[in-house]
Amino acid sequence: MRQNEDMPRPNRRAEKRLDILEAARGVAVGEGAAGTTLRAIATAAGMEPSAVLYYFDGLSEIIEELVFSASDRFIDMITNAVAAATSPVGRMLAAIRAGATGGIAGDESRILYEFWAVGIRDERLNDADHALDRRQAAIYRAIIEDGVAGGVFAPRVTHDEAATALVALEDGLVMDILAGTKSSDEVVALIVAVAESMLGARLQA
Hints:
mainly alpha; elongated; 2 domains; 205 residues; Tetracycline Repressor, domain 2; single chain; Arc Repressor Mutant, subunit A
């Protein structure tokens, strides 16, 4: 059967979806969640809204793709930072710094926080937020377990409690960085201080 000549080729369709997502990312960073409308995305992509719907089912799918990809990039940044460190203390510091500041320059954190409130009413986005927390906590948990095994950490709480608390602390304090009420250095210092207390270890000289 002859393929409909009006249908985009698979590679072209994938490329166009990426172009639209990149336009949506720019809109989300510049205008926030409230300004991320289908028309604004279409305008940024140089298209009509109806043409965007040829590649996506709707605005919800575009936002989900933005959040999912930002989550993956964020975790990759933390994982790479941790992998470059050579000791439990070094890996803990790397995880804290990357978790608190790694997503700022590339706008991953801003995208994730912009659409966090949307996730309260959107089941898929809410699931994505919880999954991100679990992935980040798993990184902390592995570092803590490694440090305990090596006699470096002596946690005052369970490993799970420490990992979950560090993620929750980051979630709250990164908002201060984005709002401009605290610097990245201040936030990292606060998280490190709490980590030292929970882990019974000195993380910085």
